[in-house]
Amino acid sequence: MSIRKAIILDRDGTLIEDKDYAYKIEDLKLLPGVIEGLKFLQQDYLFFIVTNQSGIGRGYYSESDFFQFNNHLIKVLEENQIRIEETFYCPHIKEENCECRKPKIKYIKKIVDDWNISIKDSWMMGDHPSDIQFGINGGCKTVYMITGHGKKHLRDLKANGIIPTLVHSNFLEAVEEIRKLDI
Predict the structure, then answer these.
(1) Would 40 be classed as within a structural domain?
(2) Helix 34-41 to helix 171-181 angle, to the nearest 10 degrees?
(3) Distance CA 120, CA 58 (A)
(4) What percent of the chain has pLDDT over 90?
(5) Region label for 21, one of left (φ > 0), alpha (ψ between -120 and 50) or beta (otherwise)
(6) What's the rounded Cα separation, in Å, for the pair 3 and 119?
(7) Average predicted confidence (pLDDT) for the chain
(8) Which CATH number fits the domain that encloses residue 41?
(9) I want to staple 103 with a disulfide (CB 3.0 to 4.6 A). Which of 20, 109, 133, 177 is the partner?
(10) How far apart are CA 183 and CA 63, in angstroms?
(11) Is residue 10 among the annotated active site residues?
């Protein structure tokens, strides 16, 4: 089996509008450029979603609500000929200090092992400092999206010495730069 590359995607604020604990299907709204950008990348990358979902741990919604919402997102993407290989989620609150919450790399290890991914040739895209730290900890390149919560946490990146490979406010422009860097 040949080595493959991945785009690991945060969900809320990166792929979809972040509605603060999004779980209602009627609230699902893809961000601009997501469909076009993913289509542009899919010939060279496998796609994975890794998302912290502390709303489950806080009791704001159930795991069943999460799966219903996420399955709807996957269906919308499939209707646009985009395949997400797998979604990984952490249902815990930060204070539980679990192994599955970003920036810990349990899910990057699983993606690398299960899908024969070259992590150094892969990318993590997200709108939180923990997304970028997750990518750095796992050994991949990173794109900090100034979408969702990205703008309000931009200072946190700098204050904590977290340096993403790229910073973008537009998904499609981020994808175009990923393609240029990977040529």
Answers:
(1) yes
(2) 20
(3) 34
(4) 86
(5) left
(6) 10
(7) 94
(8) 3.40.50.1000
(9) 133
(10) 40
(11) yes
Q: Is 97 part of any domain?
A: yes
Q: Does the annotation count 27 as an active-site position?
A: no
Name the active-site residue from 12, 18, 127, 131.
12
Query: What distance in Å separates the CA atoms of residue 182 and residue 82, rounded to the nearest whole number?
Result: 20
Does residue 1 sit within a domain?
A: no
Phi, psi of 22 (to 5 degrees): -70, 125
pLDDT digits (tens, 9 = 90+) for 33-72: 999 999 999 999 999 999 999 999 999 999 999 999 999 9
Residues of the chain with pLDDT > 70: what percent? 98
Q: State the DSSP string of 90-120.
A: E-S-GGG--SSSTTS-HHHHHHHHHHTB-GG
CA 7/CA 44 separation, integer angstroms: 10
Q: What's this model's pTM, rounded to 2 decimal places?
A: 0.95
CA dihedral 3, 121, 110, 78 (to 10 degrees): -90
β-sheet bridge partners, residue 30: 16
Q: Which range marks the domain in which residue 12 is found?
A: 6-181
Task: Count structural domains, the chain.
Answer: 1
d(CA 34, CA 125): 12
